[in-house]
Automatic annotation (TrEMBL):
Region described as Disordered: spans on this chain: 315-345
Composition bias, Gly residues: 329-345
Organism of origin: Streptomyces pratensis (strain ATCC 33331 / IAF-45CD)
A Pfam family per the record: ArsA_ATPase
Name of the protein in question: Anion-transporting ATPase
Length: 345
């Protein structure tokens, strides 16, 4: 599995939850993951019941086997200050520009600059190595913008590289695009088994492929259980009320006539939903991408629920697949420790 995992999806599909669960799944067996947020919503902090994330990498969870999940909320202004210091050595001068409002102007007005800074910071984390030459993070997972603008967000570096044909900006944009368009990167799309999210997922995949950005898998989120077997679904779909009433009477249920109508209506609604979900599954299967499914967490997403979703990912081979890539664990070795769960910031 690629080292840079980008998670996008239509609003309301739970892409932040999926990104967090993926980070936990990939952190098993002593691996280290970095979960990156770029939209300023502090959704990661809320999921892990942590304080608001600052502009620094902070450990927020420990996965089974001692792996660690770190998180970073990338701020475009701070990223630009880092950029100015890195390429132009403008430490104090950059801070002066911030006070004058120039930094805010550049990140909100200049076309594409903000997205270049956000993707550039994430790609820097992907490439970063320690003194022993090992990657600092085995995986970097980005909670990215929604499907409707994910291609433009990731591909903006190409546009900037075309405008600035020489110099540090050109070199930075080219370096970012080498990561984003390489096998190191995979863009996953999150959907529900509903017509609009599935259609937007299909459209997003087409746009990503047209831009030559690497598409990973489709994650079907909030999958509800089927409560009826095939025979019961056929019965419910047919609205066979008399047969159901007779069955209830034979079973000794009193007042079966009064029960039949609401029972049949609920069963019919369930059967209709199952049929619609099967249609959407067929559409997703036709996209030619690997699928993963995560169940609906009806009681709300808590840190414990995130661990359950991560385990679902592992059951479907996500963690094992990544560990076995290229015949070795990415990052050059296991970092084992005590198993645990979510930790505070």
């Amino acid at each position: 599995m690629s080292r840079f995992q980008v998670v996008s999806g239509k609003g309301g599909t739970g892409k932040t939850t999926v990104a967090a669960a993926l980070a936990l799944a990939l952190a098993t067996e002593g691996r280290r993951t970095l979960l990156v947020e770029v939209e300023g919503r502090q959704g990661i902090a809320q999921l892990f019941e942590s304080d608001a994330l600052p502009y620094e990498e902070r450990r927020i969870a420990v996965a089974p086997g001692g792996g660690e999940v770190h998180a970073l909320a990338i701020d475009a202004e701070r990223a630009l200050l880092d950029y100015l210091q890195m390429f132009y050595k403008l430490g104090s001068a950059g801070r002066a520009l911030k006070k004058l409002g120039a930094i805010d102007f550049a990140t909100t007005i200049a076309p594409g600059v903000r997205d270049v800074l956000l993707t550039g910071k994430a790609c820097e984390a992907v490439r970063r190595k320690d003194k022993q030459g090992r990657f600092v993070y085995d995986y970097v997972i980005m909670d990215a913008p929604p499907t409707g603008r994910i291609t433009r967000f990731l591909n903006v570096n190409d546009e900037v590289a075309g405008l600035a044909r020489i110099g540090p900006i050109h070199n930075q944009a080219q370096a970012v695009m080498r990561v984003l368009k390489s096998p190191e990167t995979a863009v996953h799309l999150v959907t529900l088994l509903e017509e609009m999210p599935v259609q937007e997922t299909a459209d997003g995949i087409a746009e990503l492929r047209a831009a030559e950005l690497p598409v990973g898998r489709v994650v079907v989120n909030m999958v509800r259980p089927h409560l009826l077997d095939e025979d019961a679904l056929r019965t419910a779909s047919g609205g066979r009320r008399k047969e159901i009433a007779k069955t209830l009477t034979r079973a000794g249920v009193k007042g079966s006539a009064a029960l039949v109508r609401p029972l049949v209506e609920q069963a019919a609604e369930h059967a209709q939903r199952v049929g619609l979900e099967r249609e959407q599954r067929a559409v997703l299967a036709g996209l030619g991408l690997p699928l993963a499914e995560l169940p609906l967490i009806s009681e709300g997403v808590t840190p414990a629920a995130l661990n359950e979703l991560a385990e679902e990912f592992r059951k479907q081979g996500v963690g094992d697949e990544s560990a076995d890539a290229a015949g070795q664990t990415p990052g050059g070795g296991n970092r084992r420790g005590s198993a645990g769960g979510v930790v505070g910031s």
